[in-house]
Design a protein that fits this description.
The complex is a heterodimer of chains A (107) and B (160). Chain A has 107 residues and is mostly helical. Chain A is 78% helix and 0% strand. The N and C termini of chain A lie far apart (54 Å). The chains are: A mainly alpha (107), B mainly alpha (160).
């Protein structure tokens, strides 16, 4: 029988938290009313979700070269994801997409 | 130039993982070409190496605090998304700062995008246009308490 080590359990917990935030991000894309608020959901939840999943993979993998690559990937995502969201929102703002206000109809 | 070459070469070996003659040779050739073409992009020539290193290290020191903020921001957004009534009140705010460095502005914009309820929309000089998910909370954070601004200016040694 295969027994999980404490490190593997920790890795599974991290991956589980990451999955939770990814799912919440997807739900937010459907539920939130307009472009800007959807950018909030995808920008924040996806960043943390991917980060937690990569940390889980690092814990599962142990001290190997693959872990170093995964760490670099996590750092890259933490820098590039907010930048990408900012680029999207910036273009929408300069093109005159009206933000949703409380009490408006859903778009 | 030599520093950039060394950084690129270390990066090459981390990514390749092989240490035979072919891979070492290919790495030296590739890193040499990249250094020749775009060596002046990574480090600015008007700053000394020690200054660049200090900015880089201070940015690394800023990361743990940012992680905590990100976790809090995500829990907040997750709560608002999953709440049946969705307690959101979005609006656009304008935050004026005296930040002047590129790294500092980038750090502030990224930090704001990842911290509770705000996405940076546009940056013109020191003026940041911000879309806030909940107006009252973000107004308090960004315009009255200015906690992110204070922390960043302490780390980078520039006025808030």
């Amino acid at each position: 029988m295969y027994i999980l080590s404490p490190l593997n359990i920790l890795a599974l917990i991290c991956i589980g938290i990451g999955l939770f935030f990814m799912v919440v991000g997807a739900v937010g894309l459907i539920r939130l009313p307009d472009f800007y608020t959807r950018a909030h959901a995808s920008g924040k939840c996806d960043t943390l979700g991917e980060g937690m999943m990569l940390i889980g993979f690092i814990l599962y993998e142990g001290m190997t070269l693959i872990s170093v690559k995964l760490l670099l990937l996590a750092i890259f995502i933490f820098i590039s994801s907010p930048t990408a969201v900012h680029a999207l929102v910036n273009v929408a703002h300069s093109r005159g997409v009206k933000p949703w206000k409380k009490g408006d109809e859903r778009q | 130039m030599i520093v950039i070459f060394a950084i690129l070469l270390i990066f090459w070996y981390i990514l390749s993982g092989y240490f035979d003659l072919f891979h070492i040779g290919a790495g030296i050739i590739c890193c040499g070409i990249v250094t020749l073409i775009s060596g002046d992009l990574m480090l600015r020539s008007d700053r000394s190496l020690i200054q660049s290193g200090r900015v880089f290290i201070s940015f690394i020191l800023f990361l743990p605090r940012l992680m905590v903020e990100i976790l809090y921001a995500n829990l907040d957004v997750a709560y608002r998304i999953l709440h049946p009534k969705m307690p959101i009140d979005p609006d656009i705010l304008i935050v004026d700062t005296k930040f002047s460095g590129d790294v500092l502005r980038t750090a502030f914009a990224n930090a704001m995008t990842l911290t509770p309820g705000t996405v940076t929309v546009a940056v013109e000089g020191g003026r940041f246009t911000v879309h806030a998910l909940v107006r009252s909370v973000s107004e308090e954070d960004l315009l009255q308490n200015r906690s992110i601004q204070k922390r960043l200016s302490r780390i980078f040694g520039e006025g808030p």
